[in-house]
Write a structure and sequence with these properties.
By secondary structure, the protein is of the alpha+beta class. The protein is built from 7 helices and 15 strands. It folds into 3 domains: 5-58, Structural Genomics Hypothetical 15.5 Kd Protein In mrcA-pckA Intergenic Region, Chain A (Roll), CATH 3.10.290; 66-129 and 215-236, Pseudouridine synthase I, catalytic domain, N-terminal subdomain (Alpha-Beta Plaits, 2-Layer Sandwich); 135-212, Alpha-L RNA-binding motif (Alpha-Beta Plaits). A hairpin with a 2-residue loop joins β5 and β6 (57-58). It is elongated, with a radius of gyration of 23 Å. The chain starts with a strand and ends with a helix. The structure holds uracil. Uracil (URA) binds at residues 106-107, 110, 191-194, 207.
């Protein structure tokens, strides 16, 4: 059984309208709990145990939402910006009522897997530097990526600010004037992948996140598309 809450709060939290609008719905008899029409918007209700009908439809209450997005280039992974488009601009208002935020940041020009949720505790755990949740990226590099780079990354490299990275796993997919790689890192410093390649004298020209923990980007999502995660997938985010 969930904690009891006011019916107007429950319904406004899931996007049925503002508290003032819910009050009007009560007057019109649009809200029914356990077979009884609700007239008092302050009625205390168990959002999981009680049956709540809104305009004749049974509501599915939930506290948290978890979304996977294939983030496109050109969007900030922020919840507000005065100038640039943000990833929330791509999300339907019916999800925005839950106030989701991105779990960690991708650069404006980075594409790929971005998880958005309103579950602060999950986000905290995933981003905790102590947890070392792995993140795998695909990148195109201007320059020839060599076995020496693989070796250097496996030991850890020194970034421009003197930070020594943890060991990471670099796989060369194609080595040439423009190389293609996959890199798994276990931390999340600012611009980490780009700065790691700078430390070996190379430039990332395209970056895409493929996975976080054991959660993989659903490649059927086009850039800018998103979908909710399944129960199973939510667990995968924290798995190593
Ligand atoms: N590393 C980067 O340099 N940029 C990102 O967006 C993510 C990881």
């Amino acid at each position: 059984m969930a904690k009891k809450q006011r019916i107007d709060k429950i319904l406004s939290n899931i996007g049925c309208g503002s508290r003032a609008e819910i009050k009007k719905y009560c007057k019109h008899g649009s809200i029914v709990v356990n077979g009884k029409t609700v007239t008092n918007p302050g009625l205390q209700v168990d959002p999981e145990g009680d049956e709540i009908l809104f305009n004749g439809e049974k509501i599915k209450y939930r506290e948290f939402i978890y979304i996977m997005m294939n983030k496109p280039d050109g969007y900030l992974s922020a919840t507000f910006d005065k100038k640039d488009p943000i990833v929330l601009d791509l999300i339907d208002p019916s999800y925005l009522v839950f106030e989701p935020f991105p779990v960690g940041r991708l650069d404006k020009d980075t594409e790929g897997l971005l998880v958005l949720t309103n579950d602060g505790q999950l986000s905290h755990r995933v981003l905790s530097p102590k947890k070392h949740v792995p993140k795998t990226y695909y990148a195109k590099i201007d320059g020839v990526v060599t076995d020496e780079d693989v070796e250097a990354f496996s030991k850890g490299v020194t970034l421009d600010d003197g930070y020594e990275t943890m060991p990471s796993q670099l796989t060369i997919l194609k080595s040439g004037a423009e190389s293609e790689i996959e890199l798994t890192i276990h931390e999340g410093k600012f611009h980490q992948v780009k700065r790691m390649f700078e430390s070996v004298g190379k430039k990332v020209v395209y970056l895409k996140r493929l996975s976080m923990g054991k959660l993989k980007l659903d490649e059927s999502l086009a850039l800018g598309e998103y979908r909710e995660l399944t129960e199973e997938e939510i667990k995968l985010i924290e798995e190593k």
